[in-house]
Write a structure and sequence with these properties.
The structure holds 2 protein chains of 2 kinds. Chain A is mainly α. Chain A has 2 domains: 10-79, no CATH class; 85-254, MetI-like fold. Helix content of chain A is 70%, strand content 0%. Chain A has helices at residues 4-9, 13-22, 26-53, 58-63, 76-83, 86-116, 123-134, 142-152, 158-162, 169-180, 185-192, 197-208, 210-226, 229-234, 243-248, 261-281, 283-291. In chain A, helix 10 packs antiparallel against helix 13 (210-226). Residues 1-21 and 290-297 of chain A have low confidence and may be disordered. Chain B is mainly alpha-helical. Chain B has a domain at 64-165 and 202-355: MetI-like (MetI-like fold, Orthogonal Bundle). Helices cover 71% and strands 1% of the residues of chain B. Chain B has a two-stranded antiparallel sheet. In chain B, strand 1 and strand 2 form a beta hairpin. The longest helix of chain B is centred in the last third of the chain and has 47 residues, at 311-357. Classes of the chains: A mainly alpha, B mainly alpha. Chains A and B meet through helix 2, helix 3, helix 4, helix 6 and helix 7 of A and helix 1, helix 4, helix 5, helix 6 and helix 10 of B.
Chain lengths: 297, 376
């Protein structure tokens, strides 16, 4: 016990401090909200600049980058985007994302259920393999994945964009963890009634797994919509580009001369909208994923 | 009687996992072995790497990258240097920012919590390509960042064209050396193909801009993890510490941080794994430039294979990066866990000693944490 001076003062302090805690002073409150507001501006303002810039002309965007008033106001950037390859990329992104999401949700729950509930030889080994696969960093697989797509002759096709990312080990893991938390009794009742394994999975277990299914749907949607690496190595045909791949090319002069900031901002904004909508609609589930059972209000 | 019998489950079990085994096996495990072969070959990208035209070259690709002096090794070392500065900058900053945001949001008097939480988390759901385009604009020579810096009389750099290293700049400012004429004691000694001057450059201005972008983007995800963990902290514990007279900072360091320890460990580990793989930003924003100062192993591997058609070297870099991430995360996990366990054992010993000395009473937890606060 080193610092006696400090220790001697403590017994008197508690009540005073505890009272002071319950009602923070006005100055402190202002300071607190000031800090929060600073961070909020730091996080929101860039997106406002993005939106405003997409209605500017290129010289205006370059010279008055901080201004919030387009001068002159123009929808030129949006019109250019509409007549470019952008709509094709958007369509490709929709096709790929929907296929990947549906595939992931179905196949990952199927495998997760088997690993959680069905007794078959090799189950433990499979699960160990799954954990090992989850530890492989995705970025080192770019070249290997290209090699196999090339070897199978499906490079530059839709299946090449979709199938390799249709099942991911983390998704199986999430579903397995969830199925293990459901009581077995319900399934046993259905089994006694003579339902087959798939029937039990489809009509009894899956409806109970709604929260996990929604979480997996969101993760898959967001993951495949924002995926870049896989689409770089799966195709070099502009007709098959997804948004991420196509828009990434904007920085290397795909739009002709100059920086073309308004077009880039409009494209970035458009590709953000679908994920933003999913985020706003399912916000509860985003935070619940991390906060299960911790919502105290 | 059919569904329940073990024979039937045997079949159903395998049937259920077959799609997963097929896809993961075909697009994950098989490719790893194919790439292993390519990394030991001289395949140029034409035809199939599995015909007699491609020959086995043993460990040549690996030794060109790691042992022999030359451009390949120099580039790899530059990419390691860049990523090293990137990792030791991004991981602590994003962890501290995420924790600070979470603590701010966890204030029980806070109004509008949902709004702030949404604002901070939102960049995490946005595509890295969209964020990269936005930051290219914000950090442009005449961009918003430099306009704001100008308010304070700072003449902002031309961020993404500036290859000067931060350590070089600082050394120049304090008069340790001059950037235009580096001293010979820095430029002469050479380790693995790079001079001391190159090794100790620090992150370039361009890389620093990318680091700020990544910290800004990812902090939200980790903030949610911290927030969940903070809400699990029983209020009684904190109240007990409060009654015992621990001030805000003491409570934070001795009650909150120990409680968050597992989450901090998780966030730091995920941070390490994520940052070593950095690729998207380099692909979209800088393509490794300026002057190779944003080159990373992941981008170098892509570039070697897809741009320079040196597939063997590209695959070899991927395996080296894989090994590096594996070793570093194992090491880091072992270091942190070991310390954790040691601290716990120490705390237990102290507790036992104290239990012998005096009978247990109320507020023991807070008392102990308070004592720890004063001894440290």
């Amino acid at each position: 016990m080193s610092a006696p001076t400090k220790e001697e003062t403590t017994p008197v302090e508690p009540q005073i401090q505890a009272v002071g805690e319950s009602k923070p002073s006005r100055l402190k409150t202002y300071g607190f909200y000031g800090v929060l507001l600073f961070f909020a501006i730091l996080y929101i303002y860039p997106f406002i600049i993005q939106l405003v810039t997409s209605f500017k002309t290129n010289p205006d965007a370059t010279n008055n980058s901080l201004s919030l008033r387009p001068d002159p106001f123009t929808t030129q950037a949006w019109e250019t985007l509409a007549t470019s390859d952008f709509p094709t990329w958007f369509g490709n992104s929709v096709i790929v994302t929907l296929s990947v999401t549906i595939g992931r949700v179905f196949f990952c729950s199927l495998a997760g259920y088997a690993l959680a509930r069905l007794k078959f030889r090799g189950r433990v080994a499979l699960f160990t393999g799954l954990l090992a696969i989850m530890a492989v960093p995705g970025i080192v697989l770019l070249i290997p994945k290209f090699l196999v797509l090339n070897y199978l002759g499906i490079y530059n096709t839709y299946p090449a964009l979709i199938v390799p990312i249709m099942i991911d080990a983390a998704g199986i893991f999430i579903m397995k963890q969830f199925f293990e938390s459901i009581p077995v009794s319900v399934e046993e009742a259905a089994r006694i009634d003579g339902a087959g394994t798939f029937r039990i999975f489809w009509s009894v277990v899956l409806p109970m797994a709604k929260p996990a299914l929604i979480t997996l749907t969101i993760l898959s949607f967001q993951g495949s919509w924002n995926e870049l690496g896989h689409f770089i190595i799966a195709t070099n045909n502009p007709d098959l580009y997804t948004l991420t791949r196509g828009v990434a090319g904007f920085t290397t002069g795909a739009l002709g001369s100059g920086n073309q900031y308004p077009i880039a901002m409009a494209a970035a904004l458009l590709m953000t909208i679908p994920t933003a909508m999913v985020f706003i609609l399912f916000q509860r589930y985003f935070t619940q994923g991390a906060n299960t059972g911790a919502e105290k209000g | 009687m059919k569904a329940g019998d073990p024979q039937r489950q045997q079949g159903a079990g395998w049937l259920f996992v077959t799609p997963a085994i097929l896809v993961l096996g075909l697009f994950l495990i098989l490719p790893i072995f194919m790439a292993l072969w390519v990394s030991l070959s001289d395949w140029s990208g034409r035809g199939s790497p599995f015909t007699s035209e491609t020959s086995f070259v043993g460990l040549d690709n690996y030794s060109a990258l790691l042992a022999e002096p030359g451009l390949a090794r120099q580039d790899l070392m530059i990419s390691f240097r860049n990523t090293f500065y990137y990792v030791i900058g991004v991981v602590p900053l994003q962890t501290v920012l995420a924790l600070s945001l979470a603590v701010l949001l966890n204030n029980k008097f806070l109004k509008g919590r949902t709004f702030f939480r949404t604002a901070f988390y939102f960049p995490s759901v946005v595509s890295s390509v969209a964020i990269s385009l936005l930051f290219l604009f914000l950090f442009a020579g005449g961009g918003a960042i430099n306009k704001v810096l100008a308010w304070f009389g700072v003449n902002g750099p031309n961020w993404f064209q500036d290859s000067r290293g931060l350590i070089h700049i600082i050394g120049d400012r304090v008069g340790l050396w001059s950037i235009s004429d580096p001293p010979s004691w820095m430029t002469d000694p050479s380790v693995l193909g790079l001079s001391f001057w190159q090794w100790f450059a620090g992150p370039s201005v361009a890389l620093s801009a990318i680091m700020m972008q990544v910290v800004w983007t990812t902090a939200g995800t980790f903030m949610l993890m911290f927030l969940a963990s903070l809400q699990d902290l029983p209020t009684e514990v904190e109240e007990a510490a409060m009654v015992d007279g621990a001030n805000k900072w003491q409570r934070f360091m001795n009650v909150t941080v120990p409680h968050l320890r597992p989450t901090i460990l998780l966030v730091v580990t995920l941070g390490f794994i994520g940052t070593w793989q950095v690729f998207d930003q380099m692909y979209v924003m800088t393509q490794g430039g300026p002057a190779k100062t944003t080159l990373t192993p992941a981008y170098l591997s892509y570039q070697a294979a897809f741009t320079n058609f040196q597939w063997g070297q590209g695959a070899a870099i991927a395996f080296i990066l894989f090994a590096l991430i594996f070793v570093l995360t194992t090491l880091q996990r072992w270091l942190l866990r070991d310390k954790d366990a040691a601290a716990q054992a120490k705390a237990e010993r102290r507790q036992r000693r104290e239990a012998r000395r005096r009978p247990p009473g109320g507020g023991a937890v807070a008392e102990q944490s308070q004592r720890k606060a004063q001894t440290t």
